[in-house]
Amino acid sequence: MAAVHVVGGHRDVVRPLLSSGLADEPKRVLHAVWHMVSGDLVLSGLALLYVSLADGTPGAGLVAWFVAAHFLAYAAAFLVITLSVGWPRPLLRLPQWILLLPVAVLAAAGAA
Question: What confidence score (pLDDT) does residue 57 get?
Answer without folding.
Answer: 84
